[in-house]
Task: structure prediction
Amino acid sequence: MFTLEGKTILVVGGASGIGRSVAEMAAHQGAKVILASRNASRLAMAAEEIGNGTAHTEVDMTNEAAVKAWATALPEIDYLVISASSAAHGPFATAETGPLRAMFDAKFFGPYVTAREVLPKIRSGGSIMLFSGVLSRRPGENCAGLGAVNGAVEALTRAMALELGPNVRVNCMSPGMVRSEAYSSMPDDAREAMYQSTGESLLVGRVGVPTEIAHAVLSSLTNGYLTGQILDVDGGHMIRQYATR
Ligand SMILES: NC(=O)c1ccc[n+]([C@@H]2O[C@H](COP(=O)([O-])OP(=O)(O)OC[C@H]3O[C@@H](n4cnc5c(N)ncnc54)[C@H](OP(=O)(O)O)[C@@H]3O)[C@@H](O)[C@H]2O)c1
Result:
């Protein structure tokens, strides 16, 4: 009932981070995996490392025309995971709207268009997992836009679940801070300091790792009674105490 054996899963954002971990775990559980993102060589390397016949296909979710053409060429699938995104930061009072609009293109409109265009390829009984993040309901300084786009994805999740049931279920993973390539542009010591201080504020005493999110994603994809939910896998971030300023 909950098995991935013989199922096909498409992971958009599967070349790195949480998506890569979802793909790896699904392949080990017997699923046929298709990785998608923008960089062909990163995709090819990830597919080879995962093995088990993992396929890959290039797409930029922010190019609506390209997504439409790409989706028509896909095979039928059971599960769609969209972990691809980008982020923009800055204080509310001074942040330029250009980077914020680009983030909405990548993290809201990209998943919207991708899910809409891939939908005809999803078999009845399948499901979709979108991604938001803790900032939707626990704001952080310099993260107003990111919190807002996460909130938009969560609202979209509930609306899609309402419209697509009973054939397709839709849920949203809202991770807390997880060690991933998303932070690879930071200097090593600053990144570790950030992981350390955030981890200390969490109920579990540390930040997460991609496999912990992947485990919950796969279990939710295959649970036929779960739809329209925001899954907080966040080390207790939602109920943590905030440090005083
Ligand atoms: N890591 C965290 O602490 C954390 C916390 C809260 C929420 N989240 C959310 O969790 C999700 C996964 O995060 P992550 O840490 O795994 O990120 P990541 O390691 O940066 O992975 C993002 C993936 O998306 C692909 N991608 C980016 N833009 C794309 C586009 N326009 N079209 C297609 N593919 C694109 C990237 O590959 P290419 O660049 O090669 O295309 C990359 O493989 C995101 O939605 C993120 O906002 C993460």
Remarks:
- The chain has a mean pLDDT of 96.
- The longest helix spans residues 97-118.
- The longest strand covers residues 122-131.
